[in-house]
Write a structure and sequence with these properties.
The protein is an alpha+beta fold. It has 12 helices and 8 strands.
């Protein structure tokens, strides 16, 4: 099977500099070659799943969605003009992105139904989900980037924000999480931002927003619930969540520190498992990652409740272009989360 060509944020930006019809056609031709390779690889990885998994209707639906996207792509004639791109390729890319928007939910439902039928020794859910979801992230970026080349916006090239501001992203996301906190708890911790507040770098702003939403949501919830426990008051005085923006020559680090009680030692080693959550579950819990994955769909749903995919998926978004997400916990006190992101734009995407 052919190997795919990894991209960097810099290579994506170069496609949109001095954009011309010739560059758009070249991008379309690259998409026509690259996306079928990636989809074929993902279809192959679905095909070699254990029979009991592939025979599940939800997993079969995932396979069908990918197969339809693959078939549509390879049936498009070679694009020679911008008009042909708009007529043939762009609608297919739009359908492919929209059609796979609920893939994570389908996978979760499918694995819930087969969880007790598969030995975790024979099927590594963690490796499969890491591969499948990082591949999905990469494909969606590629497709959306090409579509957005037709809709250029100031300080943007395709999906890449040339001046992505961590401070602005934190402000936007914190306004959402504090509103959620007010609605659920009637109180909210302050969020104090320090460091290089004016720093900007080329990045996909929606990815940063997703990560920050997950981290601030978790910090807000744990801060309120921990302070209620130790104070015995429904409306305790809340310590602030502190965020430090610290760019280096090549790596931007964002540290989020809270006094939310930290993470128990036995939970800390599980936080990157899909479906694991420290939220109270209905029914019994399990250390089997497949069973844990399934139980995440039985939780009490609320805007602040973790479904068990947020942290591992956030780490994949960070790792996509060479970053990482690291958590350090002081049990009984709080948690420090270190989000590192490449700020040069030159790191190639993960190519599983």
């Amino acid at each position: 099977m052919k190997k795919s060509t990894p991209h960097s944020l810099k290579s994506y930006c170069e496609e949109g500099v001095d954009l011309s019809p010739e560059k758009i056609v070249a991008s379309a031709n690259h998409i026509q070659q690259e996306l079928p390779i990636r989809l074929a690889r993902e279809l192959r990885n679905l095909e070699i799943l254990p029979f009991i998994v592939m025979s599940n209707p939800y997993i079969s639906q995932v396979y069908s969605l990918y197969q339809e996207a693959f078939t549509e792509l390879i049936e498009i004639p070679k694009i020679n003009t911008v008009e042909e791109d708009n007529q043939y390729l762009i609608p297919v890319l739009d359908r492919a992105v929209r059609g796979t928007v609920n893939i994570v939910e389908l996978l979760g439902k499918g694995f819930r139904e087969v969880a007790d039928k598969i030995s975790p020794d024979k099927f590594n859910i963690q490796d499969f989900m890491d591969y499948f979801l990082i591949s999905r992230i990469a494909r969606r970026v590629m497709a959306q980037h090409h579509v957005m080349l037709h809709h250029q916006r100031p300080k943007m090239i395709g999906v890449v924000s040339l001046e992505c501001s961590p401070k602005n992203s934190i402000d936007n996301i914190s306004s959402v999480t504090t509103e959620m906190s007010d609605r659920m708890y009637g109180i909210r911790p302050d969020i104090v931002i320090s460091g290089e507040l004016d720093f900007k770098f080329p990045f996909i702003a929606s990815h940063l927003d997703y990560i920050l939403m997950e981290l601030l949501k978790n910090s807000t919830r744990s801060t309120i619930e921990h302070q209620r426990r130790i104070s015995g008051r429904h409306f305790p005085d809340l310590p602030p969540i502190r965020i430090l923006i610290a760019p280096g020559p090549e790596i931007l680090t964002i540290r989020i520190s809270d006094a939310g009680g930290g993470i128990k030692a036995q939970d800390l080693e599980n936080i990157w498992k899909y479906g694991f959550t420290t939220m109270k579950r209905m029914g019994e819990t399990s250390t089997n990652p497949l069973a844990v994955l399934s139980s995440s769909f039985e939780e009490i749903h609320s805007p602040m409740a973790g479904l068990g995919f947020g942290l591992p998926l956030s780490r994949l978004y960070a790792k996509h272009f060479g970053g990482n997400l690291v958590i350090s916990s002081m049990e009984g006190h709080g948690t420090d989360v270190y989000l590192s992101l490449d700020c040069t734009g030159e790191v190639l995407e993960i190519n599983y």
